[in-house]
Design a protein that fits this description.
This is Long-subunit fatty acid transport protein. The chain has helices at residues 2-16, 44-47, 334-337; strands spanning 36-37, 75-91, 94-113, 116-138, 141-165, 168-189, 197-220, 225-234, 240-249, 254-264, 270-279, 283-292, 316-325, 339-348, 353-354, 360-361, 363-379, 384-399, 406-421. It has 429 residues and is mainly beta.
């Protein structure tokens, strides 16, 4: 057993050295704002439609720090996941497909004192990744514009939770956000006799602290039914990042270089409320609602994204619902202990985009998930089970205006959640 624990600890430390890439994207919409925001649900929650606020005791859940007290004094939970995503972009008769994937998240959860739990891990925050171009011919002059972008922002978090009274848990996360995103625009005149061009490069670097406060209240309805009400508040983050910018105009032979720390990189205040209902530890059903006040978040005009403070961001409403079912988690039969999961979600976009007619609008995002938890390791006398969590996900991004790209994503995620008796001492016979 000790050798198993050492191997697990070593794997966790090595995994922390690997950059968390999240669900890397090829979306042209990632040109705006902080790119495509990653789902903060991990493992079990991701396959349940992304619900997080009322989830408790179903493995690691950094989405609500109040859940950390669900582990007992003998338990250590290690959760790590990877994913693969196939994306499809369509605009009229034009269709393009891409493939992406990588390490998603790492999370550990354990007790540190009586009535107090802790979690530490690393999660993706947002991703930028795109490459597209346009070609225009006017008055026998052909202009080729090429746009590329890459990078991501990640967050390392540390959280604590405490049970001040029976059936109430409160907790908080402090996260360090870091990373950078790079954007380039290359414009060249390809028709004869001229080949003049303009090159622009922008790099946004962000290092910031983010806080999340959570609470969960457990209501035993009877011997078999448990209702959990959960809430999370993330205060607005007002901070500045750093911009590195190069503008090279070959027509005037001018090169402008700019480096400054006046880049606003605000994050919105977030309010979340949700619940789960558990029936005899076999069926869990839940739902979440989230509001993010993006309209008050500032973003630097020096990024030259074509938007202004008035039209760049939208306030976001997100709705998630999901369930998990196991025939009999106490049975020795493998199939009866498998966890079956599913869910649905919807949200509007936090960013606006602009079509070729100059119209500015956002998009709607719809998603569906399906998943399985396959038991791989049982400690019979304690009721602890480790799982391989497999999740399937479909997402559709539907723009509100015409002449914009519709996106579809088909993803599969695989996670390993080790539920281990970490702190038990062996007795001499």
């Amino acid at each position: 057993m000790q050798g198993y624990k050492k191997l697990l600890l070593t794997a966790g430390l090595v995994a922390f050295l690997i950059p968390v890439q999240g669900q890397n994207t090829d979306s042209p919409y990632s040109r705006y704002g902080y790119g495509v925001l990653n789902n903060q649900a991990v493992g079990v929650s991701r396959a349940m439609g992304g619900i997080i606020y009322g989830v408790r005791g179903l493995d690691a859940n950094p989405g609500n720090p109040a859940s950390y007290t669900s582990v007992d004094s003998l338990t250590f939970i290690f959760d790590m996941g990877v994913s693969y995503v196939k994306s499809r972009f369509s605009e009229g008769d034009n269709v393009q497909t891409d493939n992406n994937g990588g390490l998603d998240y790492i999370s550990m959860q354990f007790r540190v004192a009586k009535k107090m739990g802790m979690s530490v891990g690393i999660l993706p925050f947002s991703s930028v990744g795109y490459q597209f171009g346009t070609q225009e011919t006017k008055n026998d002059v052909t202009t080729l514009k090429t746009f590329t972008g890459s990078g991501n922002f990640s967050q390392v978090y540390l959280g604590l939770a405490y049970e001040p009274i029976e059936n109430l848990s409160v907790g908080g996360n402090v996260s360090f956000l870091f990373g950078n995103t790079k954007y380039t625009r290359d414009m060249s005149i390809t028709s004869e006799p001229s080949s003049n061009f303009e090159y622009q490069f922008h790099k946004l670097t962000m290092n910031s602290l983010k806080f999340d406060l959570g609470a969960q209240y457990m209501i035993p309805l009877n011997k078999k039914d448990l209702l959990i009400i959960g809430a999370v508040l993330s205060p607005k983050v007002t901070t500045t990042g750093r911009i590195d910018r190069i503008n090279n105009d070959a027509m005037t032979s001018d090169t402008i270089r700019f480096t400054g720390s006046d880049a606003y990189t605000d994050l919105p205040s977030t309010y979340g409320l949700g619940f789960t209902w558990n029936r005899d530890k076999r069926l869990t059903v839940g739902a979440d609602v989230t509001f993010q006040n993006w309209s008050r978040a500032r973003y630097s005009e020096n990024m030259d994204d074509g938007m202004t403070q008035a039209n760049r961001f939208n306030n976001v409403w997100r709705f998630n619902t999901g369930l998990e079912y196991s025939i009999d988690p106490r049975d020795r039969s493998f199939i009866k202990r498998v966890r079956f999961r599913g869910g649905l979600n919807y949200s509007n976009s936090y960013i606006n985009v602009q079509n070729n007619l100059g119209e500015i609008s956002g998009y709607k995002e719809y998603g569906a998930t399906l998943g399985f938890g396959l038991p791989i390791r049982d400690i019979v006398y304690s009721g602890r089970t480790s799982y391989i969590n497999i999740g399937l996900e479909y997402r559709s991004l539907n723009p509100e205006k015409t002449n914009l790209i519709k996106e579809q994503y088909f993803g599969i995620s695989v996670g390993v959640c080790i539920n281990e008796l970490w702190f038990m001492k062996n007795k001499l016979r």
